[in-house]
Amino acid sequence: MLSSVVLPATFSEAVERAVNGWITQTRVQRGLKPFVHDEILVRAARGHSQNMARLNFFDHDSPVANQLDVTARTIAAGGTEGNHGGNLYWCRGLADARVGGSVRAEWMTSEGHRDTVLSSEYVRSEVGAFRRGKEVWITLVCSDWINQKGWPNVVPPPVQVASEWIRTKRECNILLPRCQEGDDCQWI
């Protein structure tokens, strides 16, 4: 019997799917609508992660001329002006299987990052990941646009409901893979 599950082709796609999955799960558990996923935001997010690796920086602001901030990156990827936001994550030396959990733990224990993930201002979001050697850059791009230029509504990925919800930083440290001694992780 053939399975209908489509497996990610790359590490980046696997991380993107994992992060998008827990964001959707978290929003639904909190009574929020899941973000609608959008290929334009995929291009903006992946492009920023790749630029941070290629140009050796870690910041929301980019030295790339037409991609100075998240709105400019979204427009450069084919989107429109609007209210855009996002989160960044970087790590070095973390095992592949622990990256998604580390992103969740870091973003959900930081008030500003958690606010972005749980914002009702944004309708669309996407994650872009890039790995170079043992380093990983992850960008979340969110937007408030709704079907401008005739873009279709996209069905969000299926929600995988966890057996328990993590309510405190202590629980995050116990239940989720975290950076350990020798790992080097940051988020802004």
Key features?
188 residues; alpha+beta; Pathogenesis-related Protein p14a; four-stranded antiparallel beta sheet; 6 helices; 4 strands; 36% helix; globular
Describe the structure.
By secondary structure, the protein is α+β, with helices and mostly antiparallel strands. A hairpin with a 2-residue loop joins strand 2 and strand 3. A four-stranded antiparallel beta sheet has the order 2-3-1-4. The chain has helices at 11-29, 39-55, 70-76, 99-108, 111-117, 169-175, and strands at residues 84-92, 124-132, 135-143, 184-187. Helix 1 packs parallel to helix 4 (99-108) and helix 2 packs across helix 3. The protein is built from six helices and four strands; from the N terminus they run αααβααββαβ. The protein has a single domain (11-147, 164-187), classed as Pathogenesis-related Protein p14a (3-Layer(aba) Sandwich).
Offer a quick outline of the entry.
By secondary structure, the protein is an alpha+beta fold. About 35% of the residues lie in helices and about 15% in strands.
Mean pLDDT: 79
Beta fraction: 15-25%
State the CATH class. Alpha Beta
Structural class assignment: alpha+beta
Query: What percent of the residues sit in helical stretches (DSSP H or I)?
Result: 25-40%
Can you say what the CATH homologous superfamily is? Answer: CAP
CATH topology: Pathogenesis-related Protein p14a
Number of strands: 4
